[in-house]
Amino acid sequence: MKVVLDITRLLRRSSQATPTGIDRVELAYARHLLASHHYQDRTAFVARVRASTWYLDAETIATFIDALAQRWKQSEGRITRRELGEVERFLHLAPGTLSELEPPAPPRSALPDALPPLQRLFSPVNLLPRLLRRRSAHGAVYLNVSHEGLNSVAGVRSMVRGHGLKPMYLVHDLIPLTHPEYVRPGDAEKHETRMRTVLASAEAIICNSLHTRNQLVAFATRSDLAVPPSVVSPLGIENEFDKEEPAMPAGPPFFLTVGTIEPRKNHLVLLHAWRVLVEKLGPKAPKLIIVGRRGWENENVIDIIERCRKLGDHVLECNRLPDGQLRRLMKQSRGVLFPSFAEGYGLPLFEAMALRVPVICSDLQAFRDIAGQAPCYLDPIDGLGWARAIEDYARPGSEARAAQLRQLAEIRMPRWNDHFSIVDRIIDVVADSPSIPAPPSAWRPAASLERSKALIAAGERAEAGRSLAFAAAQPHSSTR
């Protein structure tokens, strides 16, 4: 059994200072395949550069992945003491409360350089003749977990047929198709092509939530396409969320919202709710810290943040925070807020829940799939409802907040080990199944697995025969 991971996106994004959510997922897959004994000497990597498919040396890939992971990790800590000082003043904390725990940011020149291993990857020594590589990888499971390159149907067809690969894909979301108003012009058409490529070529599909799979099935039905065998495997929480964070001195009640400032994240409902709270409570109104970089089409939100005098002492925009400081602020907050209009998964919400921090969020199926009944769910356009819930959770004796804390104490959020325990079994199923070549006139996926609409629930065990038929009637969070 051989596994080939497509790391085209990591190569393309390696010059960026910080990773996106999909970057983190592809990095997690690369590190798992390199570290797991299950794949020892059976892992290869592939990149598609300038319409060519390149198989890359695994040992050099390990050096590149390690350098990139360190670079991104250290870049997250590049917050200045001045920026931390603004948070301290906003929360009425003594100077140094946050910054004294943060090591000095490394200079840019000290960040690990991903370029040398990248150059070695594409050296003549590593780029062996394609025919030799093709023989060694023939029949391998091809993993694409980033949607990268899937808007070229011909390119995927050529790679799969020419190299004898068995494709598996991780589908993150169908937001460009279900909510085209929240993406850039042209993205909906591109994503439709990606999903058609997935449905037409996959031996198996991994979905990050039941909601994502339901959306994929609905798209396939509308498009008169068959759905290959698919499983649900929630993405994992990093192990750092099990660590104890140092407590902060008591200060005014505050909330956080985490996410890129863009229309889909619906920051406007929070800002209008805070205006209501400030008009009602005056200086006693709770505070809000907005953690996230500025995205696109956010002029209304930025105008309110920068120009609304009523909110000046109660709302702070913080473009970046080191992960440790973010966890610390989450733990101290009265709750974390997620008023999104649409999500494919919502990892920051589940990270907050892993820290046992109360959550108030939009009533989205993507959230309910993983979080169950614990959060406080609200309609994303119910501004007054958000204001009432925030005011309630800000009170020291809030019964609603206490009730959620009791539920959070019994919930375990998925970890990466949970995710890969499912993915590894599916890779084995696909690898062991015989491929049936498609007729020349029609390119279809190999009919090698049972076409089942059932799902694999996180934490369930595979039955004999390695079938993909599993039940998923319950949310993917679990009690201890």
TrEMBL record:
Listed InterPro entries: Glyco_trans_1
Pfam families xref list: Glycos_transf_1
Location of the Glycosyl transferase family domain: 240-372
Signal peptide: none
GO MF terms, alphabetically ordered: glycosyltransferase activity
Descriptive protein name: Capsular polysaccharide glycosyltransferase biosynthesis protein
Organism encoding this protein: Ancylobacter dichloromethanicus
